[in-house]
Design goal:
alpha/beta, eight-stranded parallel barrel, 18% strand, globular
């Protein structure tokens, strides 16, 4: 099943209650709560408050979007604190980062650090029933589908998956190929329409996202497709994008039944 949602850091300046209200008004189903502002790592009181207002609004917690970088623990972000927060938030998935070095710059030692730490934290997360999922992002070891596959295969842990988002620097064919390659490990998707420096209305990228969803709907399991970037950081644009997202997901579901 594909469900819709919002990544809370889309509106970092808003309080959690405002985020919940926006998502509710937009008719989306879930929220990925960010670990930098809305539910800070280790803030158990905030996590309990946020999950309460989320569930009372009839919404789901899609994930906890942490800023933990595997292989880079320096004392400022403890994975144990991040995991404890995710548990209190009742998050089924915990987003992490694959180090802080791009795959084209990474040396063998960088790969080993990320792999070893990922195995360590996946074992901790498995005890809580929470999946870990790498951010699919530049300047990490998941900055290309090839690198992400190499990393996921090397870690070889059933509860480590990967997010996906369309890499801005690639053309459509390359994006589609990358999504197909990462499909067996696909967790959630971050949804936006961007080909240049700034995001554009999602409706203008409808055809492209329909092609992505043709792939996603064939992948077993449940996942969330969540709006992340909004043109002009505008709430009115968010509501328009939410309508486009719901329409794209509904069309994909209908095609899957045909």
């Amino acid at each position: 099943m594909i469900q819709t949602g919002l990544v809370s850091v889309t509106f970092r300046e808003f309080q959690p209650a405002q985020i919940v209200n926006l998502v509710q008004q937009a008719g989306l189903q879930a929220i990925e709560w960010g670990g930098d502002v809305h539910v800070p790592h280790g803030d158990i009181k905030r996590a309990r408050e946020v999950v309460k207002i989320t569930l009372e609004a009839g919404l789901q917690v899609a994930a906890y979007g942490s800023y933990y970088k595997a292989g880079c623990e320096d004392g400022t972000i403890s994975f144990e604190k991040v995991l404890e927060t995710a548990v209190e938030l009742q998050a089924p998935s915990l987003r992490i980062w694959a180090g802080d070095v791009g795959s084209d710059q990474a040396e063998a030692a960088d790969w080993h650090r990320v792999i070893d730490d990922a195995r360590r934290i996946s074992a901790l997360a498995a005890k809580t029933g929470i999946n870990l999922a790498f951010e699919y992002h530049e300047k990490t070891l998941t900055d290309t589908s090839e690198a992400a596959l190499r990393l996921l295969k090397a870690i070889d842990s059933p509860n480590i998956l990967s997010y996906w988002q369309p890499p801005v620097a690639l053309d459509l064919d390359a994006r589609l190929a990358g999504l197909r390659e990462i499909a067996p490990w696909l967790s959630n998707l971050h949804v936006f329409n961007q080909t240049g420096e700034e995001p554009e209305p999602l409706a203008e990228g409808r055809d492209e996202w329909s092609k992505y969803m043709n792939i996603v709907r064939e992948i077993p399991g449940d996942r969330f497709c969540m709006l992340e970037f909004v043109k002009g950081n505008s709430t009115s644009q968010f509501f328009e994008d939410a309508e486009a997202l719901k329409s794209i997901c509904i069309d994909a579901a209908i095609r899957g039944l045909a």
